[in-house]
Write the structure tokens for this entry.
Amino acid sequence: MTRVMHVITGLDMGGAEMMLLKLLSASRESLQSIVVSLKDEGIIGRSIAELDVPVECLRLRRYTPNPARFASLLSLTRRFRPQVIQGWMPHGNLMASLTQFASRIDAPVIWNVRMSLDAVERENFTTLSIIRLGALLSRHPTAIIYNSVSGARQHENCGYRVAKTAVISNGFDCDVFQPNEDAHSRVCRQLGLQSRSILIGLVARLHPMKDHSGFLRAASLVSALRPEARFLLVGKGLTEREPALNKLISQLNLTDRTFLLGERTDTPQLTGGLDIACSSSAWGEGFSNSIGEAMACGVPCVVTDVGDSASLVADTGVIVPARNPEALAHAIGHLIDAGPAKRKELGVAARRRIVSEFSLPKIARRYEDLYKKCLECPQ
């Protein structure tokens, strides 16, 4: 079994963290893995530990360097003796390279880039600096994985080495995320809604790049004409404890129509209960996990044309420009008016696309094939 050390920025709920969890779950019989979090264990770290994959947390803090913790990472690396060191996200990628260099382990380093750069100027100073530093150092890793074609092209335009590029999309567990005829009525009962309600969902952490305000403005336009529409917001930060978010919901007269569900562990059931799934991202989206999961559940999607969302959905849903609530509202209204039969037809096509192109076993094999290829390359 190939020994792989994964170095990731943190293990809170997020797209990169979920993809790491899914990869570890799918490759338990072929890879011996260990995970190093630069921060703490988070929600995903506990799930990884349940797979009997060791999780080591450095608990690094911004602006407070701790050489002792880096020394412990080097000690761990020498004991585990990884054959591949896999970084995840900008900080994890650079730490993976630094660890390989400092430990003098003869193992290929692979970076994993999970973002697009549609609006790189919106990133904070630290992240922007790390991205630029990554471009300067991009000749060092053996390969650089991107989860989207758009992200690969954008990083290459910023100076990342073209010869290192490997595009591996996110993968989806089609046994966990699958159509469920009872899910809609179950979600309606949980929320105290009538079964004829049209459930429109956005699964994404609260962050400006996800453009929840744009989604809510679209929701206001939709609900003005379609009183049966209800809007579900799922993800970190989407709770009543967010005053700015609640103020906007109140201003848009959506208080009785919008449900802030926060982080959930039952997203397969929630997603399967939707009539329409949305991604309203304004920038930064690489390859949307939530949209792929909705498609696997047989739910038609409306997405903004950011990252690879348009190519993921293809002709199984509707693509609209980013930062355009009117276009988003029109697309949602179009799918509502199309009726249950048309939405089901699109959902069946969406599920078929995920199963044939983006199933988790197929994507896990692509990671394993890349590891094998890198091990055959001279270091």
About this structure: The first strand starts at residue 2 and ends at 8. The first helix runs from residue 15 to 26.
